[in-house]
Write a structure and sequence with these properties.
It is built from eight helices and eleven strands. By secondary structure, it is α+β, with helices and mostly antiparallel strands. It has two domains: about 120 residues, Jelly Rolls (Sandwich), CATH 2.60.120.10; about 80 residues, Arc Repressor Mutant, subunit A (Orthogonal Bundle), CATH 1.10.10. The strands form three sheets. A four-stranded antiparallel sheet has the order 1-8-3-6. A four-stranded antiparallel sheet has the order 2-7-4-5. A hairpin with a 6-residue loop joins strand 10 and strand 11. It is elongated, with a radius of gyration of 19 Å. The two termini are about 35 Å apart.
Length: about 240
Amino acid sequence: MNKIKIESVWRGTADCQHCGLRHLALFGDLDENDFHLIHAPIDDLSFTQDTTLYSEGSHSQGVFTVRSGMIKLLRVTSDGRQRIVRVLRPGDVAGLEALATSHYDSEAVALTDVSVCRIPLEVIQSLEAGSAHLHRRLTLKWQQTLKEADDWLADLNFGTARQRVANCILKMRSPNDSRFATLFSRDDMSAMLDLKPETVSREITRLVREAVLEPLDKLGRLYRVLQVERLQAME
């Protein structure tokens, strides 16, 4: 994986006040007076697929709001296995836990090419102290993060193998066009769904054979969803 140095210089290229995703992002409720409280620069960054944005346990210097693409969060289990615990999409925040601990709980890896805004902790801390809007927004983001983590566990770790694979595909549909789904490697999916890799492969092959999915690349990562109702009704 390609790694970046988290201590790299802040370039200050972001324009939060006029961002097209502002209504989804962390600064969505801020008014003009709030933006005057921002003194440290905020970076607008892009990363290619498989780039590590930050590592589990590393010291945090900021949080990341996703502007485009998807990021997977990974943790190492007690037996040494790496598990995908959640996928972030545009409007989601990566590294929010660092506001409380100053360290990242997971490893963040670009699942696709992504663009993010990297916000220094000092910016959020100063805004939280001076802006009721951001305090409210942070509370909502915490609640949303907890709910999504619960939903992820409930949908992907219970039911038959067929149901788990189907639910994974439904969750991995593109936020821009739900007809398409970007999947993980079979090893990643097996760890995430608590299934054997061959079981995952067999179920996906079966869905392709039944014309529920259409593969669009040779790696078996990108699919067109032809029958979403069939996926939703899997038993």
